[in-house]
Amino acid sequence: MKIFSIFSVLGIMGAVLVFGFLPTNGMAQEMQEGQVQPQEKQTQQQTPQSFFEGEDLGQEEFVDVVDPRELKQVVSQINDLKRQIKQVLKKAQKAVAFANEVSELNNLLSEVDRFSNTIKNAAPEDQRDALQEFYDAQLWETLNGIRTKIELPQELKSIEKDLKRLEKLIASKKFSIERIDLTVVRTTIEEIKNAVTQARSEFNQGNFEDAREALQIIHEGAHPGEIYGVLQQLREMNQRFKRFTTEVKDVFHEALEPVYEAVNSGDFREANMMLQDIRNDLWRLFDKVKGKSRVNEDMQQKLQKLEERLQQKQQQIQEEQSGSEPQSYQPYQASVLDALSNWLSNIFGR
Q1: Less Cβ crowding at N or C end of the chain, within 10 Å?
Q2: Residue 26: φ, ψ to 5°
Q3: pTM
Q4: Residue 285, CA atoms < 13 Å, CB-side half-sphere
Q5: Is 4 exposed, middle or buried (0-12, 13-18, 19+ CB in 10 A)?
Q6: Phi/psi of residue 301, each to 5°?
Q7: What is the dihedral of CA 198, 202, 207, 211, to 10 degrees?
Q8: pLDDT for residue 245
Q9: Long-range contacts of the stretch 135-139 (C-beta < 8 A, 24+)
């Protein structure tokens, strides 16, 4: 009986444990399945919504808003473009031979107006596309091509006319300028001649863009009229120097060294701009040392400041040249008188 009782008790306890364990696992499994399935359904329902919400936020964050300064610059370019088109159109209308070019320019003007209105009326989120369309159109290049057909023949004649005056100037037996290497001038003259020959050849073959590019050396600083003007100014200074003592002359030469450096490097435009910047002060100093055998301390300081101004101007010019890319083709301004007008008016107005 005791043995039976013990086994009975053990059996009952085992049954309780077994049956007690099975419902627990079943319930846990049901609870686990009951929790997982709703979460999966909820995830499946929420995922598309989260994706689209994220996409909307991304679109708002990456709208390419145009900087007002860029917009202002483009508006300025458009106004300049319209102004230059009208200038070229006025020239073209004077000759029957340019009837096709007149039509092209009128169409170009209409195209510029269209871009102007589109950019002006575009919503902020559409301005970038409007500007990019304007950039891609490359209207400056279109104008340059038409302009070359109309203006280049006359430009070549004007360049050659200025070249003859320049060659005549340096061929004079009395022509000499201290501190200036005339070999550089003669080399530049030959480069200009070669450029003119190439430009005329390309133009006659209908290669208008190549013809314009052939004259790049002139537009970048080898302007015959400008070279003529610089040499005339320096020659006039040399004539003044002959009246000075060696000591006075050397002090002035030292102050003008940046100008001499520019000329001897072939940077005639830079030399011309520096001379224009100091011309009035320079001539006043010439008058103050007239008849003196030496330069006093006050005059030395003024000349030193003059040299510093030249150096600053030289640095400014170089920085502007390295940081700028002109968009439009600038026609040759063939006028020696223009290059000399300010200088001569200063001399004869004294």
Answers
A1: N
A2: -65, -45
A3: 0.65
A4: 27
A5: exposed
A6: -65, -40
A7: 40
A8: 87
A9: 137/111, 139/81, 139/108, 139/111, 139/112, 139/115
